[in-house]
Amino acid sequence: MTFDRKPPVQVADESDAPQGASVREFDFTRLMMTQLSGRITRWHMEACVFPQNTAHHQWSVSVILMWITAGDCRSALLQAALLHDTGEREVGDMPSTIKWRVPALATLLEDLESEYRAEVSPTRRDPLAGLSPYEVRLLKAADYFDLWIYALIELASGNMFAKLWIQRIRRKEEVHAGVNSRTRQLAKALASASTDQEGLLRLFPEGDIRKPSETVDPGRGPRGMEG
Predict the structure, then answer these.
(1) pLDDT tens column, 147-169
(2) Which one of 51, 88, 199, 214 is most buried, counting C-beta atoms within 10 A?
(3) Which spans in the chain are helix H?
(4) Is residue 220 part of a domain?
(5) Does residue 227 form part of some domain?
(6) CATH number, domain containing residue 141
(7) How many angstroms separate the CA atoms of 56 and 224, rounded?
(8) What is the pLDDT of residue 26?
(9) pTM value?
(10) Is residue 14 part of a domain?
(11) pLDDT digits (tens, 9 = 90+) for 197-213
């Protein structure tokens, strides 16, 4: 058996580095700070069946972003989605509801988070700084829909507290649902799942959530995640 010779591997040099970032300036400390920021626990003031951390949240926001743009979004927007909450390692995770109620607090926290995002960014710039106004709306919508989807997954997993979360989350529905046609479609599907049990069950593949009659076994996670 013969094998075709593979072309030589191209080794990145300094000319391949993005503008503003030098290979010689690779900083493992900043990389680890970014990694550790993904361990911040979200929803820490609520009783959750399956706790969520910032790494999972940022990944989820990125996936939602790809869906609501039909995959047509700049890499800079995806980078912003993947790193938008790295600043919470500095200021912590403040519940969205209190930020909605106190806009001045939200502004102060965002300024602090922006400084930290820039500090740990590979380019030493806040990844959100270069987004267009429309991209900012898309990112905020994806962030909002992750809240809603997470609450629905908790509800489907037997967490009755999630009904209260969804009521609070839906107060901002009009703000984020109207960004484009896909956000409107997504909001409509999530609204149906929030008010109708059959609509909730239709969101998930059969077997991926427990039926209401099933008991919770603390030693088992979601399907495929058993300990």
Answers:
(1) 999 999 999 888 999 999 999 99
(2) 88
(3) 28-37, 54-68, 75-83, 88-91, 96-101, 103-120, 133-156, 162-169, 173-177, 181-195, 197-202
(4) no
(5) no
(6) 1.10.3210.10
(7) 17
(8) 66
(9) 0.75
(10) no
(11) 777 777 776 655 554 44
